[in-house]
Amino acid sequence: MSLHRTNHALGFSLVTLFLTVSSFLTPSIAVASDPTGRWKGEWTSQSTGHRGPMRANIRQSQDGSYQARFSGRFAVVIPFTYKVQLHPRYDEFGNVHLSASKPLGPLLGSYTMHAISSGSTLQGSFNAAKDIGAIKMNRIGPSR
Fold first, then answer.
1. How many Cα atoms occupy the beta-carbon half-sphere of 141 within 13 Å?
2. Hey, is 4 helix, strand or coil?
3. Nearest Cα to 68, choosing from 109, 42, 37, 105?
4. What global pTM score does this model have?
5. DSSP labels for 111-122?
6. How far apart, in Å, are the Cα atoms of 49 and each of 21, 28, 46, 75, 132?
7. Are 99 and 110 in contact (CB under 8 A)?
């Protein structure tokens, strides 16, 4: 009877050891965050101190990039909206790094943005017309 218990305990210990070693040897695969959906947050200018509300709707394109429509307010009452193509790069932690660039005309120069989508947050920086700032947004729903 004690021999049966010893074999059973030894078998259990070997299975436990195998599962533990396997978990360390198996490479972990991070699932990339999906930036598609509706987002809500704010933009902040580091150059002027201005800030305001902002929303975004992001959809994936057939070519693997994303189409985004951002809208918000400047100086409380001045609305803005713009569309931009976001180019993704995925990192080993499952984050999606998004970048965009868009000419705004001869007076305003160009707009660039770099952001990271990680789960339910989207945050990054922008540069436009001698203005440098940040965006911070949270996911509020699926794309429309």
1. 3
2. helix
3. 37
4. 0.74
5. EEEEEEEETTEE
6. 53, 42, 6, 11, 10
7. no
CA–CA distance, 118 with 115 (Å, rounded to integer): 10
| 128, amino acid identity | A
Q: Considering the domain 37-141, what is its CATH architecture?
A: Beta Barrel (2.40)
Structure tokens at 22: 């396997």
Could you tell me if 94 and 35 are in contact, meaning their C-beta atoms sit under 8 angstroms apart?
A: no
- Contact indicator for 107, 87 with CB cutoff of 8 Å: no
List the chain domain ranges. 37-141
In sequence order, the 6+-apart residues with CB closer than 8 A to the CB of 66 are 35, 36, 58, 59, 60, 85, 86, 88, 98
pLDDT digits (tens, 9 = 90+) for 13-70: 544 444 444 444 444 444 567 899 999 999 999 999 999 999 999 999 999 999 999 9
Residue type, 84: V
Single-letter amino acid, residue 4: H
Cβ atoms of residues 54 and 70 within 8 Å: yes
CA 125 to centroid of chain Cα atoms = 13
